Amino acid sequence: MRKIAILAGVVAMALTTNAALAAAKVKTQPLTPTLAARMNGKVVAETRHGPANFAARTPGRSMMGFGGKGVADEAGNRLVERDKIADPSRALSAELTRMLIEKSGARLSPTKAFAIGDTPADLAVSGPGAQYVFDVATTEWGFEVQNKQRYGAFYKATVRLVEVSSQRVVMTAACDWKPFGLRTFSDAEIKADGSEGVKSHLSVATEACLTQFKRELFGAE
Prior knowledge:
Layout: H1 2-24, H2 33-39, E1 43-48, E2 54-57, H3 59-63, H4 66-83, H5 88-104, E3 107-108, E4 113-114, H6 120-124, E5 132-147, E6 150-163, E7 168-177, E8 185-186, H7 187-192, H8 196-218
Parallel strand pairs: 1-3, 1-4, 1-5, 2-5
Antiparallel strand pairs: 5-6, 6-7, 6-8
Helix pairs in contact: 5-8
């Protein structure tokens, strides 16, 4: 049993490491003056996604390796529904879309583009009548053990601007947030207070990612 637990821990660590490396590999492409000029007067559609799985990573589920992911997602999704935990991507998308329109002189489509998939080609066809599709998506979120049975939330998101005619990503950035320095919470607290600890962490994550995206994409201080 001890060997199985060690192997599961190694698998879980590898998955976490790979996810971090994947986020690090996203090469930031800001809104350049040339791109802004090209977008001026064009129509931009803001995307909407279905809910991303929320991972409730307890020690037991993490030890299950690959099989534990589905269990963690199922438990986390129930928690999101029960405690009305808001996905930060909505707030991020609203503010970043506003800035994109302001900086580029483009026009915002009155109709949201409901993403049918995750590839640039999928996004390009999701906004009929638009020349650009602006996508802000949660890629991973949930909570995991920090120390001694206490938990912290985590949050990852990507921003992509897709040019419809070429189906190319012409602006992009990624945020990978961890709760460094924040008060952690226990399983009992999650059950007793309506996930207020989770919500508090995600609120900080939203502001941190928003600040990062504004700086990297638009040069905001």
